[in-house]
Amino acid sequence: MEKGDELGRATLADIAREAEISVSTVSKVLNGRTDVSAATRDRVERILRAHDYQRGARGGEAPLIEIVFHELDSLWAMELLRGVETVADEHGAAVVVAHSGSRRAPGPGWIDAVLRRRPLGVVLVLSGLPPELKRQLRARSIPFVIIDPAGNPDPDVPSVGSANWAGGLAATRHLIELGHRRIGIVTGPEDTLCAHARLDGYRSALAMAGLGADPDLIAYGDFHAEGGLARAKRLLALPDRPTAIFAGSDLQALGVMEAARLHGLRVPEDLSVVGYDDLDLAQWTSPALTTVRQPLREMAEQATRLVLALRGGEPPTAPTRLELSTTLVVRSSTAAPGRR
Amino acid sequence: MEKGDELGRATLADIAREAEISVSTVSKVLNGRTDVSAATRDRVERILRAHDYQRGARGGEAPLIEIVFHELDSLWAMELLRGVETVADEHGAAVVVAHSGSRRAPGPGWIDAVLRRRPLGVVLVLSGLPPELKRQLRARSIPFVIIDPAGNPDPDVPSVGSANWAGGLAATRHLIELGHRRIGIVTGPEDTLCAHARLDGYRSALAMAGLGADPDLIAYGDFHAEGGLARAKRLLALPDRPTAIFAGSDLQALGVMEAARLHGLRVPEDLSVVGYDDLDLAQWTSPALTTVRQPLREMAEQATRLVLALRGGEPPTAPTRLELSTTLVVRSSTAAPGRR
C-alpha cells in the first residue's frame, strides 16, 4: 500500500487510516480539541509518536494553557494552579504561569509573548483585562476565562467564581447561633466585589437575626496576614470589643489570631475567629480554624474546561458565569462567647 | 538604503544595523543567551517588535523554561516557582510548570512533551532523572539542573542546594544554648539525603556539647504537618519526653505544635519547637516559629541562571554543585526549658 508524502513521511490521512478514524478527528487531536474521547486521543497520540509525526502548526505542536496571576505568593494561588494543571494534563497540554506583579492587569510585554506562544487558552486570576488586550486575544481566537474570587466580573468575559454572599452569610450565622452579638468583620480589599459580597452576607445574617451592623466593627483588609493583624488590633482596642471576628481569608485569620494573642485573648474562649478559603493550613493553626470552604481547585478546573470548550468551538452561552458553592467547615476556633 | 529580504521583511542584519551591534549579538538575544547586557537585550527586543520580526526557530519564538516538581502542594513549591519565574522574566521567557505526582521521576509522557516544546532548559525539583531521560535531553541540547533540598544529588547533573548539615547544627546548638538536654528531632524522609544531613548536624551539635544522641528521640518524617504530628505524639508520650523538638520542615513543625497542644503542653514554656525552611507562615504561627531559613527563592533563581548559562554555552565546570547558606531565625517558639 502506498503511503506517506513525497519525503516518505506519514500524512494525516495515513494516521487516520491506521487509527481507523476520520482525518478530521486526527486534526481535532492535533489541535487540542476536547470533543474527542480520551481513548481515541490516546490511540492517535500513540500512532503520531510511532511515526514521529512533525506537527506543522505551533498550537498543535506542544499545546499550552496559560494562567496569569495578579499575585503569586500564597497557598491560594497554588490551589488554583493545581486545578489548571489537572485539566491541562488530561488534555496533554502544559501550563505556563505568569504573574502581573503589582499591576492589576498584565503588563505590555505579556500580550506579545502570549500571541507568540499561541496557547489553547488563557485562565486569568485578575480583575479583568484592558479592552485592547481582549481585542488582540479575540483576533487570534485565543479564548480566555476569568477566575474572579478576588476581582470584579467583566460582563463580556466568561468567569468562574464562588458563592461569596452565601459564604459570608453562613460564617456570620454560625457565630450568631453560638450566641455572639458583637461580631466584627475584616473583609477583603474595598476594590474587590467578593469583599463586598461577603460583607453583604454578614450584614444580612445580622439583620435576619434582628441585629444591627455596627460600622465600628467593619473593616476592609488586604487578604494577607499583615492586614488581618492591623485591622484586628484596631477592633480589639475598641471599648466594647467584638467577641468574634469573621476574617475574609484564612491568611487574614492568621493575623486576627496573632492580634488576639497580643491582646492577651485566648481563641476561642475570649475571641472566636472564622476564616475564608479553607487552605490546607487552616487545619494546622492552633486552634484549628473554622472557615468557609471555597472550592479553589474545582474553580480552576472548571475555568480550564470552559477555556477548552470555547477553544473547541462550543457556542459561548453568553454571558457565562459559573458559580460554585461555598460551605462552612467548623473546627476549633469558634465557641460560645465567654463570660467577661 | 536597501533593506529586508525578498518579501520585504527585516533580516537579522537589518536589526543588527539598527541596534548598532553585531549580528551574532542579535542572534544571542533571539536564543535567550545570558551573556548580553539587559540594556542591549531590551533595545534589540524593542527593534524586533517594531519590525514584527518572525523568529524562525521554535526555541527563539517564545522561549520557555520548564520547572518540574515532585509535589506541587505547598508554600515550599510556591517559593521555588517564584524564583524560577523571576529569572525567566528577566530573560523574556515564560515558565511551564509540571509535576510528577506520586512518582519520584517524571512520567513517560513528560519527555515527549518537553522535546516538542524545546524549552531553553529544565529546572527539576526531583531526586533525579532516569538515565534514558537524561540522554534524550542531552541529545537535544536541552540543559537541566536539579534543585535538591529534598533529593539525593545526581553526580553528573549540576545542582543547587543549601547547607543542610549546618542548618541542623545551628538549630540544635540554639536549643542546647537555651539549656535543653533532651532534644528530639523529626527530620525529613529517610530516603532523602537532606534529612540525613540535618540529622547529622543535630548529632554533631549534641556531640560537641558532650551530649549523646538518644535513638528514642530520633524520628524520620514526611515533610508534611501530618507526619510531624504523628512522630511528635510518639516522642511526647515517652516516659522521659524531650523538652524541645527540632522539626525538619516548617510544615512538620505545625504538626509538632499541634501534638504539644493535644498533650496539654504550652509552646515554648513546656516544649520548644524549631522548624526548617522559614516559609511566610512561620511568622504567623502562634507563637511565631523559630526556624532555619533556607533561601528557597534564591536557590531557584540560581538554578535557573545556571540552566541559562549552560544553554548559553558556558563550559560546565563539572561537577557543578552550588550550595547556599542557611541561617537560624529566632522567634518565639523556643525558650529555656521550664521547671517541671
TrEMBL record, chains A, B:
Record domain HTH lacI-type: where: 10-64
Database matches in Pfam families: LacI, Peripla_BP_3
Boundaries of every HTH cro/C1-type domain copy: 11-54
SMART domains named in the record: HTH_LACI
SUPFAM superfamilies, A to Z: lambda repressor-like DNA-binding domains (SSF47413), Periplasmic binding protein-like I (SSF53822)
Keywords per UniProt: DNA-binding, Transcription, Transcription regulation
Gene Ontology molecular functions: DNA-binding transcription factor activity; transcription cis-regulatory region binding
UniProt cross-references to InterPro entries, sorted A to Z: Cro/C1-type_HTH, HTH_LacI, LacI/GalR-like_sensor, Lambda_DNA-bd_dom_sf, Peripla_BP_I
PROSITE patterns on file: HTH_CROC1 (PS50943), HTH_LACI_2 (PS50932)
Protein name as it appears in the record: Putative regulatory protein
Domain of life: Bacteria
Phylogenetic placement of the source organism: Bacteria, Bacillati, Actinomycetota, Actinomycetes, Kitasatosporales
Gene encoding the protein: bxlR
